[in-house]
Amino acid sequence: MELPLDKYIREHSTRETEALQWIAKQTNIRTNYPRMLSGSVQGSLLKILVEITGASRILEIGSFTGYSATWMAMGLPEGGSIDALEINDELEGLMREGWEKAGVSGRINLHIGDAKETLKSLKGPYDMVFIDANKREYSEYYDLVFPMLRSGGIIVADDVLWDGKVYADPLPHDSQTEGLLRFNDKVATDPRVEISVLPLRDGISIIRKK
Hints:
Blueprint: H1 4-11, H2 18-30, H3 40-53, E1 57-61, H4 67-74, E2 81-86, H5 92-102, E3 108-112, H6 115-119, E4 126-131, H7 138-145, E5 149-158, H8 175-188, E6 193-198, E7 204-209
Parallel strand pairs: 1-2, 1-4, 2-3, 4-5
Antiparallel strand pairs: 5-7, 6-7
Helix pairs in contact: 2-5, 3-4
């Protein structure tokens, strides 16, 4: 159930296009975990970050149904591109159909497979990285993408507050929470970056490489 605050924020943020509405609807109809969808408030933030940083090469780890990639692609300058990584090949048809409807197919390169393996075949520099995949592996993703990110580039990591589990007392010991705790501590103590954690949806970290 949507909270009044969340509803107010959504209604006063940039609205979804018809194509984005279609992707959101199909995600609810055709997937088992539609809550994984980023949502329009986070999507509009991603688009704005692309625009204000001037990012032209973006890496997305965890594309799900292609919703967040669509928002980011809408903010790309002419000639910009996204490398979108997703492990679930059953979602490829939905992703491609949504990108076609949004008119961004030519800006997104889809890579199906395990992200850690796919990353080994990609080369930077990237201007922006969006991480929204296996929470257990966030620290590994961070280590792999950091050398591929240009100086001044940003990493945006989703779900870093994990429904409050990362600051609960006592802390839970499930592998996803522990993975996020490792990641959050790693980034917070990394002298190579600046970081701001926002309590948006399930928490989002904006990390700038110095």
